[in-house]
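Bug #77: duplicate submission created two jobs. Keeping one. Sequence:
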Amino acid sequence: MTPSTTHAALGPDFFDLVQPARFPTHILRHRDRRAAASVGLDGLSDAAWLDHFGRFQPLPGSLEQPLALRYHGHQFRHYNPDLGDGRGFLFAQVFDDEGRLMDLGTKGSGTTPWSRAGDGRLTLKGGVREVLASTMLEALGVDTSRSFSLVETGESLRRHDEPSPTRGAVLVRLSHSHIRIGSFQRFAALQQPENVTRLLEHTIRHYMPALWQDDLATRAHAFVDQVGRNTARLAAQYMAAGFVHGVLNTDNINVTGESFDYGPWRFLPHYDAQFTAAYFDENGLYAYGRQPDAILWNLVRLAECFLPIADQAALQEAIEAWPKHFHAELDAALLARLGRNQASPDQDRALAAAWWRWLAASKAPFEQAFFDIRAGRPCPDLAVQDLLDAYPLAPVTQWFARPAPPTLLIEEVEALWAPIAEQDDWAAFHAKLEAIDAMRQAYSLSPRERAGVRTDAA
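Kept job's structure:
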């Protein structure tokens, strides 16, 4: 393990020092061994693991005390200045095996100055859902945080939106930063341009060093342009995965373009642009088909933070380039999911358009359709099949001889939770994770396994 205290150097304007909650018990329910190996923590015993990720004893050389991060955000396009880490904190920072600075952040670790009326806790069901979502998204090629650890805490929690009392848990995520669009919005709203600049320079130096320019205005423009490219990639990956995040607020958009924070998520049963994940999204603001527009809207809010220090025309240029980046990333993500190599921009666009039209018209099961094409099975639509025939099919494994891929539709998630809630039976949950991991290996779609996809250091 190579530890870091990088975020602490920003100073007290950016976070609050907090204490973790003390829990009655600590039962290890999930441990991502691949993620642990990537940061040199795979050698920890279960007891040591619980000490660090259940009791939050500091990792040697990293943060001595957890940091509750400060940020604002637009929530369903209404500005909220009362946000911040209300049930989580930045526990530690480490470098991964690619030399990237990574955060170990929590969810459900107790109250902070930003908890408002909340109890700072996480339900076990919420933790299980996040493990499932992040594991599936990684398998489908989405750049996502990893559910590093899930520990049941022995607490009984009350929630208005699920049967209560319910079991409590604490989750640890492994993420490529927790710097959000809302992190910049906070200092812009407080009229602290010096802290906007300080956060900009920190982010570029540690996450996008190739962007560094001596001129501040040029630096800000390059940063907004890069965040645009990162978020365009994220939006494209969501669409290709058939995923609906549910809460694409500015405080939930990471500037590195890494997806995180899974609350009311859903996967599509079949293509439906109006499909929503959150029951409270009454107007479908974050529906499946509106996710690209939502992410672009958030990027505009980021650009606004730099108006005092950057050229407005240059910032506008970065905004206007976003649709081009998104469509290029969407074509690439779609072809990767279909197991095809890119041909030419015109051919790729024609195939993508035909595929989406066919999915919409046929109402074919979303994940099954991609799985069948990847397995080399004929597509029922001859026009799409003719286009596909022009692309070589990437080598596939015997795994694709299976009749169906693992999916995570809402009824399946509920079926996985039922035996945990009723008999403390985790067998189906672990079997599902094993099936998803087998799919990940067959698809080989992890963003860090797909050369040329990542752009945050370009």
